[in-house]
Amino acid sequence: MTDRNPRPDVAEFALRDHKAEIVDRLYDVALDPIRLEDLLEVWEGRAAPLRGAADDGAIAPDDAEIEAHLQRATVFLDRLEATRDDGGYRSVLEEIPRSAAFLSDGGARIADCNRPASVAFGLEPDCRFDRLPFDPEDLDLLRGEIRKVAGGRAEKVVTLRIRSQRTGSPVILRVSRVEAASPLALVISTELVWPEGFEQTVQDAFGLTGAEVEIVRGIALGQPVKDIAEARGRSAETVRTQLRSILAKTETHSQSELVRVVLGLMDVALIPAGARAEVRPGAGGLEPRPLHELRRPDGRRLTWIEFGDPAGRPVLYMHLDYGLIRWPATAERAARTRGLRVVVPVRAGYGRTDLHARGSDHVAEVTADYAAVLDHLGLAGAVALPLGADLRFAMNLANTRPDLVRGIVGCACQLPVRTAAQYERMDKWQRFILANARYAPRVLPFLVQAGFSLARRLGKESFFQQVNGGSPADMETFARAEVRAAVLEGSDTCLTRKWSAHEAFTRECISSEKDWSSIVRACRVPVLLLQGDQDPQTPVLTLRELMADYPHLEVRFLPQTGQLLFFAEWPQVLEAVCAMVGNSPPKG
Questions:
Q1: Contact between 463 and 257 (Cβ < 8 Å)
Q2: How far apart (Å, rounded) are the C-alpha atoms in residues 314 and 388?
Q3: Average pLDDT across the chain, whole number
Q4: Angle, CA of 27, 351 and 438, to the nearest 5°
Q5: What is the share, in percent, of the chain residues with pLDDT greater than 70?
Q6: Where are the alpha helices (DSSP H) in 54-135?
Q7: CB 231 within 8 A of CB 218
Q8: What's the Cα-to-Cα distance from 442 to each of 40, 58, 76, rounded to whole Å?
Q9: Among residues 384, 365, 416, which one has the least CA distance to residue 319?
Q10: Cα–Cα distance between 355 and 168 in angstroms, integer?
Q11: Is pLDDT above 80 for 80?
């Protein structure tokens, strides 16, 4: 039976059996994301013929029917994610990297604890409750409150003030209920931990003296300047003078901002080795980079990292929708020797940067965030270094704030795709996501969330190999230890065992597949695009077709490269950046 579509501007699946087949696969994936490739094959077999018919519109696969199934399938997928083996009650401790925290039912033993609790209280998983450094009567009080909160017989959150036997200082404890198979409570304390050896990390990151690091430690642990001065045998005014020097070196403007920056760096030091095993194969020589933060006028948090020469010429690096904020270790060091200050804003919805409001103009808002970071740092005339479809952000920033961008060096960039045939040339995984971003955007959130769930199941390394296996050049590049370490660690902004940026990724994809050709045509700064001959997303033929519309762009093809072109050929890229930095800044 053929379904008739009353709307001539959209395409539909021709047979009800085809829709039923897709619905079946949706539920298969919701219950087991490993079946995503099966859905890909069926979807592409049924949807691909419709794309030509709907080249200027969206495929509407019987919205009322399939969208209802999508909503139900998403509920199942959400439940699956909530019950993952590594998503149980113990995972709440992973979200508390700095404060001492533990899990307890109020019984004789501690169920689990985080690393700061091990350092601050001497706890370990399954140790005795009375190991906590509190007086016996305080232990009884705490145990009783835990039992009441865990059993639902008290307020959801209870706060206690108890004196530590170790320090003699009061400790604030916050007790809250944890959803688990048996009654359990999470206890978080005000005890912060200064990680062992963290002094050297802080000193290396900011170029501080030993005395300045001790002051930073005191400030981070909440000590008043007067107490820090007494402990160091110095006057309070001397410590305040040293503090002003510290603020200048760390590029912060207040003690509270300094604490945020240091605690961000501390997060890296406090991540248990086992939790990062997947992203540190051989470590790759990457140095920890502190996460900087500012607040936008709407209250959103915006973060970024930096590396290279702090006094060097500015480079604005854009991290692709995979959130690849790190470079190979050798490349990061080369940026410093070449006199480049690389600024890497973390985009909305990735890492700790907050999402934009729903319905906002994605390109405009991302562009405003990039401008905000550069303005905050007082930087102008930067070379923008975008990857993939990030080219639209770089060009829009150059168009709207020509004072901030002197030129663009793009790597494996995507230009606005025009036709269904150009999607058909992509490798299957790239086509599956991007073609649906354009033609079936209402379906995309489920597909992306399922993809992220699959990546968790397989591990990021295996998932990358599955998705990018169609490009031998990318697989060869990814096999390099430094590249693998940079890709896996950098993409923690996008996906970890506890964090998934699938909503941000979805927005990025839908935005990239809209028509942004007017942004390209309006761009007047020098643009050099370095493109690969094995790019699974933007094949050479497609790029040559699109280049005809934009004669003002310079394009060079690098042999034996794909989407990871930057990571494979970063010396050539940095040479191009340095050459562009030497040009005169654009006129405003």
A1: no
A2: 21
A3: 84
A4: 50
A5: 85
A6: 63-82, 115-121
A7: yes
A8: 16, 9, 18
A9: 384
A10: 42
A11: no
- Beta-ladder partners of 112: 103
**Per-residue pLDDT at 273 exceeds 70:** no
Give yes or no for residue 281 having a pLDDT over 50.
Answer: no
CB 439 within 8 A of CB 58: yes
For tokens 């450094």, what's the residue? 133
Q: Is the pTM of this model over 0.85?
A: no
In three-state form (DSSP H/G/I as H, E/B as E, the rest C), the secondary structure along 198-226 is: HHHHHHHHHCCCHHHHHHHHHHHCCCCHH
Contacts of residue 374, defined as CB under 8 A and 6 or more positions apart, other chains included, come to 314, 316, 343, 380, 382, 404
Q: Please answer whether residues 125 and 112 qualify as being in contact, where contact means their C-beta atoms are separated by less than 8 angstroms.
A: yes
Q: Kindly report each contact of residues 496-501 with a partner whose C-beta sits within 8 Å and lies 24 or more positions away, as own/partner.
A: 497/86, 497/87, 497/91, 497/94, 497/275, 497/456, 498/86, 498/87, 498/91, 498/94, 498/95, 500/81, 500/449, 500/452, 500/453, 500/456, 501/323, 501/349, 501/350, 501/351, 501/452
Say if residue 14's pLDDT is above 60. Answer: no
- pLDDT tens sequence across 310-340: 999 999 999 999 999 999 999 999 999 999 9
286 secondary structure, DSSP code: P
Q: Which of 1-5, 73-77, 110-114, 142-146 has the lowest mean pLDDT?
A: 1-5
Whether the predicted pLDDT of 154 surpasses 80: no
Residue appearing with tokens 């991007």: 434
User: How far is residue 424's CA from residue 393's CA, in Å, rounded to a whole number?
Assistant: 25
Nearest Cα to Cα of residue 287 among 229, 246, 326: 326
As given in the structure block, the two tokens for residue 20 are: 């039923």
DSSP-based three-state secondary structure for 387? strand
Q: How many helices (H) and strands (E) does the chain have?
A: 24, 13
Q: Does 236 score more than 50 pLDDT?
A: yes
Query: Rounded to an integer, what distance in angstroms lies between the CA atom of residue 359 and that of residue 573?
Result: 36
Do the beta carbons of residue 220 and residue 255 sit within 8 Å?
no
Cβ atoms 282, 302 nearer than 8 A: no
